Amino acid sequence: MARPDNIARIMPRFAANLSLLYPEHAFLDRFEAAAQDGFTAVEYLFPYAYAAADLAACLRTHGLQQVLFNAPPGDWDAGERGLACLPGREAEFRQGVALALTYAQALACPRVHLMAGVAPADMPPELLRATYVDNLRWAVRQAAAQGVQVLIEPINPRDMPGYYLNRQDVAHQVLADVAEPNLRVLMDLYHCQIVEGDLASKLRRYLPTGRVGHIQIAGVPQRHEPDVGEVNYAYLLPLLDELGYTGWVGCEYRPQQTDPGGTHAGLTWLKLAQAQVKQA
Q1: Which CATH superfamily is domain 13-279 in?
Q2: pLDDT per residue over 189-198, tens digit each?
Q3: Is residue 252 annotated as part of the catalytic site, yes or no?
């Protein structure tokens, strides 16, 4: 999977996460702002507050690709963070998957993330695992019939206390248990650094397997721009290219500045990465 040495570095393809970036704009105006800053793709948490036709029009108008969004998470305002591992919620989970696939078709989005959920403390671990695997297997088969890939994402328990899936090795074991080729891991390096660290070794271990379907980045610990904090993305981004990763990298971070122009002002990291590629 590694890139041959005689091929010029191309740099990962970056997608703007519109749920976090451009908070200085109304949501539907963020598409234009991202396009003006040179992004060619977007992702966000949930599309369901907007008509699929309106979102598709924003994508089309500004020449953007939709590369990822999440299936319905249950009652977000009540603290729910997905339904996939929750016994007794299977019917609601399936309805959410069906809705997500409807939006995926309308937006030509090739992948959907299914959130695992907050694990109930009174549920036996083996029941949660069986429910999670069964739900994922059903969902992956539905998605595959429509040409859509399903992702699962380990999320750190500091940002999302009690979340069922936290570690990369556990996520890859879930893939083995589900045993469906259309299931992949969403590897968010922000969450991975908080829970496990050793990011370069994790990338070298998991990217060659072909089971990582999407990557996201943010600075650690405050989830600001990638050039702020303890993670050396100036090293990790070229490593993605070295390892032959050709997927998208979602910029899922909170800009330090939220006044007008704040997101744009914080994109110096992206300009520097692009300049390094031109020099390579």
Answers
A1: Divalent-metal-dependent TIM barrel enzymes (3.20.20.150)
A2: 999 999 999 9
A3: yes
